[in-house]
């Protein structure tokens, strides 16, 4: 029963977060946005969704993700919230 309850809570928190496709902004600069209307989703989870998607995108190119700018919009509660991430993919040696 505890496992079922824990699984339900995880699905509730993660199930209502969407991540946009990666949008090319300029030469080697990109944007990704994660959104939620779920009042139980934390800002950290919302931001991690964007960062994770960007990191995977850059890893597919054998590069590392370098964060340029982060913005959060909305008010915690029942209003929609979003986290916008601007980033670039840089050679792995440059990110260290």
TrEMBL record:
<protein>
    <recommendedName>
        <fullName>Lipoprotein</fullName>
    </recommendedName>
</protein>
């Amino acid at each position: 029963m505890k496992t079922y309850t824990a699984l339900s809570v995880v699905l509730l928190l993660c199930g209502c977060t969407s991540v946009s496709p990666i949008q090319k902004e300029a030469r080697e600069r990109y944007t990704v946005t994660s959104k939620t209307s779920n009042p139980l989703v934390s800002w950290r989870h919302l931001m991690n969704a964007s960062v994770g998607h960007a990191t995977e995108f850059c890893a597919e190119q054998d590069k590392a993700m370098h964060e340029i700018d982060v913005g959060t919009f909305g008010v915690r509660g029942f209003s929609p919230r979003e986290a916008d991430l601007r980033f670039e993919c840089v050679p792995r040696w440059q990110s260290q």
